[in-house]
C-alpha cells in the first residue's frame, strides 16, 4: 500500500510539496486533492495535492505555483491578515472558524466574504477540503490593499 502510494507520488508530484512528499514516505497519510485559482485569473485552475494534517498555507506556498503563494507574515499567529483565501466551493464542509479567526476575518473589511473567506494558516488539510475550489488573492498586494482601507 505504501509503495503504491510512493509510486503514485513519483508520477504525480508536479504540485506536491517536497515536505509532503517526504512525509508520505514515512507515515501513511491520506492524500487530499483540491482546486486552486489565483483570484485575478480565475480561468486558471490548478490541482493541488496535500496531505492530511498539513497546514493549507504551507501547502499552497510549497506548491510553488506562481500566483498561489500567500504571505503569512505573522507565521500563523492570527495577527497579520495576509493569508486570506476564498473557498468558493466546499466552504460548508470545512470546520467552523474559531472565535479568534472570526475576529480577524471581520478585520478584513470589504475583503471579507461571508461563508467564503478563511485564513489559510488556520486550515488543516483534511477530507473536508477534498474537491474544494480555493481562490488566492494577489498576495504581494493583498495585505497592502487591506491596510490602505483602514487609513
Ligand atoms: S499568517 Fe498571519 S493571520 Fe495567517
Automatic annotation (TrEMBL):
Q: What keywords sit in the KW lines?
A: 2Fe-2S, Iron, Iron-sulfur, Metal-binding
* GO molecular function terms attached to this record: 2 iron, 2 sulfur cluster binding; electron transfer activity; metal ion binding
Named cofactor requirement(s):
[2Fe-2S] cluster
Query: What domain of life does the native source organism fall in?
Result: Eukaryota
Q: Does the keyword RNA-binding apply?
A: no
For this record, an example GO cellular component is: mitochondrion
Claim: Metal-binding is one of the keywords in the record: yes
Concerning InterPro entries, the annotation shows: 2Fe-2S_ferredoxin-like_sf, Adrenodoxin-like, Beta-grasp_dom_sf
A Gene Ontology biological process in which this protein takes part is: P450-containing electron transport chain
| Entry protein name | Ferredoxin
Q: Provide the species name.
A: Euplotes crassus
| Organism lineage | Eukaryota, Sar, Alveolata, Ciliophora, Intramacronucleata
Amino acid at each position: 500500500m505504501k509503495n503504491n502510494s510512493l509510486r503514485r507520488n513519483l508520477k504525480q508530484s508536479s504540485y506536491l510539496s517536497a515536505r509532503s512528499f517526504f512525509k508520505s514516505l514515512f507515515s501513511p497519510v491520506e492524500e487530499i486533492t483540491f482546486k486552486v485559482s489565483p483570484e485575478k485569473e480565475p480561468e486558471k485552475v490548478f490541482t493541488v495535492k496535500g496531505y492530511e494534517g498539513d497546514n493549507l498555507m504551507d501547502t499552497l506556498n510549497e506548491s510553488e505555483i506562481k500566483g498561489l503563494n500567500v504571505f503569512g507574515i505573522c507565521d500563523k499567529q492570527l495577527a497579520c491578515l495576509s493569508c486570506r483565501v476564498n473557498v468558493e466551493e466546499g466552504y460548508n464542509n470545512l470546520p467552523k472558524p474559531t472565535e479568534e479567526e472570526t475576529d480577524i476575518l471581520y478585520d478584513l473589511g470589504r475583503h471579507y466574504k461571508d461563508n467564503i473567506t478563511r485564513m489559510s494558516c488556520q486550515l488543516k488539510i483534511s477530507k473536508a477540503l477534498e474537491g474544494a475550489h480555493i481562490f488566492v488573492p494577489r498576495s504581494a498586494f493583498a495585505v497592502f490593499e487591506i491596510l490602505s482601507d483602514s487609513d
